[in-house]
Model the fold of this input.
Amino acid sequence: MELTILGCNAATPRKNAQTTAQLLEIKGQLILIDCGEGTQIQLRKLGIKFARIQHIFISHLHGDHFYGLIGLISTFRLLGRTADLHVYGPKAIKEIITLQLKLAKSWTDYSLYFHELESAESELILDHEKFTVETLPLDHRVYTNGYLFKEKEGPRRINKVMIDKYGVDVSDMENLKQGKDIRLEDGTLIANAELTLSPELPKSYAFCSDTAYKSDLAALVAGVSCLYHEATFLDNHQDLAVKTKHSTAKEAAQVAAEAKVGELILGHFSSRYSDLNEFIVQANTHFKNVSLAEDGKRFVF
Amino acid sequence: MELTILGCNAATPRKNAQTTAQLLEIKGQLILIDCGEGTQIQLRKLGIKFARIQHIFISHLHGDHFYGLIGLISTFRLLGRTADLHVYGPKAIKEIITLQLKLAKSWTDYSLYFHELESAESELILDHEKFTVETLPLDHRVYTNGYLFKEKEGPRRINKVMIDKYGVDVSDMENLKQGKDIRLEDGTLIANAELTLSPELPKSYAFCSDTAYKSDLAALVAGVSCLYHEATFLDNHQDLAVKTKHSTAKEAAQVAAEAKVGELILGHFSSRYSDLNEFIVQANTHFKNVSLAEDGKRFVF
Done:
């Protein structure tokens, strides 16, 4: 998986800091997660072929997470898009977007599907051939979901050395990938396990923004390869975190530690902090493998 | 008056080309005209103290002219604005904005007034102490208005030389500015015209985007100091101009010539053109004093 941070600033965009949007490449599919104002401009600046995006997941209806959506949907139309587009987000997202398309007399020529969410429980919302997406109910001032992206287990991998040793025919490769045993021309049966290696370990990514510390979240994201968790504040603003239902760097790291994730990315920083290194320092008291999100930064896991 | 182009690209923002937004400073007031996506980011980049904006005029409800409005309104709230904000635009603009504020549970703490327009005739919509604003009904695919900003005539200007010659007292200055005659201590009546100069000539600015060539527009903008007129296409795309209800550079210049304006600014260029100089060349066949809009460019008139 490859994750590109398009923006990670809290509340409002700044001169050199966009609001939340991320691009996730998973099994060749390009997925957009949140879409703050100016996301389409950021996509262009980073040279991303964003017409490939087929799924967009919006966490909640605060502006810094979705004011760029209507512009992106309109631009897809202007660029002559024909491929379907699926938008997942809180109930009412369809009303907001379609009202604007209607008033602009600019219906999309491509099929635009809205998948509106309102459950307070985690649910499977996309079962793609190569991956799944589940919601992660969060605790914010308005109805909010994080999203958990999980690769499905791929085919078994051909063990080239053993294939050559037994002289297995190329026509058997597909059966081998599917886990089947193989009978050689002389009638000998060779067990699949002898000719193949285990599939690559499926990777997973959890996106959690915006939320107060939520004690049941760790169970839902247990063992993910990478966790993005918002860290709007440092410890000295714990009162603001409580009041605005955001997290501190320590709280984000606590979730990462409880869930035993592979790595933690912090983001959604309040503009009040000029030195972000302290977020790492405070998070490290609970979890070691921590990075900071940054506009344009790529993470591969 | 000082006009700053924040963006002038048609349809969608590009890497280095924002969609329509302009800032007009008139008699010390800061006015925003149209508000494409990312306008607030552009305002920050140009170092403009945008909290001073009290009036916003939206021409029509196509995204490249107003998708940045909701973000700006939200940011004003987050920055603790208390001053009133007046938004002028087509009917339904209030519904779009308030729906989004409601769903975000983020009502503004400042007073937000919507002035919704639906007349097909030019009307006076703002009568400020120092200037007026009238609508300029345009011809586009959806209901669209340009706007005409006119300074009111200022006070008469004191003629310092004559004041000194007659020894007029400082307490008479306000009366002189208002056009009154003055009686000296010795009883002599001095005519106002002898002690003052005419007020500065009021300036005016007409903003016209988006529109097909409209034959009755010239009468409405006759003699303005500066006319901004969209020029989405060059001559070779006249068919597209007709189809999409936009103007060519020549048509924009034709309006300028008919209206005998002081200067013409062209903008709203289609992204298909890499060399914009041809817009000047083609416009010059009808009108000489032509400039091209450009992100960040300032015009003083």
The interface with chain B takes residues 11-15, 18, 37-38, 40-41, 44-45, 61-63, 67-68, 70-71, 74-75, 78-79, 90, 92, 95-96, 99-100, 103-106, 141-142 of chain A (CB under 8 Å). The longest helix of chain A spans residues 93-103.
